[in-house]
Structures are given as structure tokens and as C-alpha cells.
């Protein structure tokens, strides 16, 4: 019942959710111990993987885990929500800790608070705009703000004291350059006048599709924009 309604698999109940509960337990433990700085480590960990999971050309991820891009998006959203929850715990750790346990000099505290607040607000707005009804109704607005808020969240979270999230950003950035540069140049070589008549193949000079029975393949037709397109899915029989 969980699979059709919430897209939750058995592996999520065995691995994913226990791992998230472990990270939440770590954050709560460090909060109780008044370890303010360390209480933010679980949020940094989940935020790192938020970016890794949106790499479209994730052949390494697919080979290591068997997770296709469509499933990786589910974990991308799940870890985004988890990051917000863990960040709230981290913020509470700061306000609940006595002054002598706050591991930051007074002159740096205002800067830490500002960068933390900005990064947190950016994450919350990102998640709100990602709700299905909002994203589908205002997709162009969602797309543009997602880029802007993503940059804001990364920059201010790094300044706040979580530079390790850049480890997750680097694979995404390399993938983005590949899609915008190499693949755009490749797809621009298509022709509307094929040398011979053929049926059943879209843009046969540009792409080839290989599927196995049961595979779900995403086909994307480029639009005027280089980073979006109209897409549909089909399942090989």
C-alpha cells in the first residue's frame, strides 16, 4: 500500500528511514549535550547527498546502487525535507545551549546567525515551490527560482560552516556543464531531411534507445530553452 501511494519501497523501510532516524538521533544527542556545532553535522551530510542525487548522467550512481534518475529524484526530495528538519534541531541546539557551550566567538556569532538563517529560508522556499501542484502550475517560475535559491543555499550554508556540501555540488556542476555544452552541440547536428525514409525512430541521427522488457525510459524533446524539454515515459513490453 505504501508503494502506490507514497512511492516507498521495502528497501526504504529497511535502510533509508532507519538511516534518517539515526541522523535525527545524532542531532538530538548533540543538542542535549550542548554540542552546538556538531549538531549541524547530520544536516550537512543530508544536504551533501541532495545535490549528488540530481546528477542526470549518473551512470556511476546507477552502477553502484541500481537507482535510476527518476528514483534518485525521490531521494532528492526526501533528503531535502530531512535537511530542513535536522537544521531546525541544529538551530534549537544553539538557542537551548548555555553561553559557555556556544563554540563561536562573539564577534562571529552575528555572521553565523545571518548565514544560517538565509540558507535555511532558501531551503524552505525551495521545498515549498517543489510541491507537485505548485511546480506543475508554475514550472518556469519554479525552474528559475530553483536555480537562484539553490545558489543562495549553497553559498550561505558554506559560509555558515558547512563547506563539505561542495563535495556534492561538484558532480552536479560537472554534469550541468556536460549537458549544456557537449550534448547541446551534439543535438544541434540533427537534420529535418533524412537521407532515406525510416519510421519509428525520432531524430535517428542524434540518439539511439536500447531498452529491456520492463524498463522505463524517459524521452525528452528539446525546446527553445537548452535546459528543459517536453518529456514523456514509455515502458518496454
Automatic annotation (TrEMBL):
Bilayer topology: Multi-pass membrane protein
* UniProt subcellular location: Membrane
Alphabetical UniProt keywords: Membrane, Oxidoreductase, Transmembrane, Transmembrane helix
Q: Give every Ferric oxidoreductase domain span.
A: 40-156
**GO molecular function (one):** oxidoreductase activity
Indicate what this protein is called per its UniProt record: Ferric oxidoreductase domain-containing protein
Concerning Pfam families, the annotation shows:
Ferric_reduct (PF01794)
Naturally occurring in which organism (per UniProt): Phytophthora nicotianae
Q: Which residues cross the membrane?
A: 12-32, 44-66, 78-97, 109-129, 141-159
Give GO cellular component annotations, separated by semicolons. plasma membrane
Amino acid at each position: 500500500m505504501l508503494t502506490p501511494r507514497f512511492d516507498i519501497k521495502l528497501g526504504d523501510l529497511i535502510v533509508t528511514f532507519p538511516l534518517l532516524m539515526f541522523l535525527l538521533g545524532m542531532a538530538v544527542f548533540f543538542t542535549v549535550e550542548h554540542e552546538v556545532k556538531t549538531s549541524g553535522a547530520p544536516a550537512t551530510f543530508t544536504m551533501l547527498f541532495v545535490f549528488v542525487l540530481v546528477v542526470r548522467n549518473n551512470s556511476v550512481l546507477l552502477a553502484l546502487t541500481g537507482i535510476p534518475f527518476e528514483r534518485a529524484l525521490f531521494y532528492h526530495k526526501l533528503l531535502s525535507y530531512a535537511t530542513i528538519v535536522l537544521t531546525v534541531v541544529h538551530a534549537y541546539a544553539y538557542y537551548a545551549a548555555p553561553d559557555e557551550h556556544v563554540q563561536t566567538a562573539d564577534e562571529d556569532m552575528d555572521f553565523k546567525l545571518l548565514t544560517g538563517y538565509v540558507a535555511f529560508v532558501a531551503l524552505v522556499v525551495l521545498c515549498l515551490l517543489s510541491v507537485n501542484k505548485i511546480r506543475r502550475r508554475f514550472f518556469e517560475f519554479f525552474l528559475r527560482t530553483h536555480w537562484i535559491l539553490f545558489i543562495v543555499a549553497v553559498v550561505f550554508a558554506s559560509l555558515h560552516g558547512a563547506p563539505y556540501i561542495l563535495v556534492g555540488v561538484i558532480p552536479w556542476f560537472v554534469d550541468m556543464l556536460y549537458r549544456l555544452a557537449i550534448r547541446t552541440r551534439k543535438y544541434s547536428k540533427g537534420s529535418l531531411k533524412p537521407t532515406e525514409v525510416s519510421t519509428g525512430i525520432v531524430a535517428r541521427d542524434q540518439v539511439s534507445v536500447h531498452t529491456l522488457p520492463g524498463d522505463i525510459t524517459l524521452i525528452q524533446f528539446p525546446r527553445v530553452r537548452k535546459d528543459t524539454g517536453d518529456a514523456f515515459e514509455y515502458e518496454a513490453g
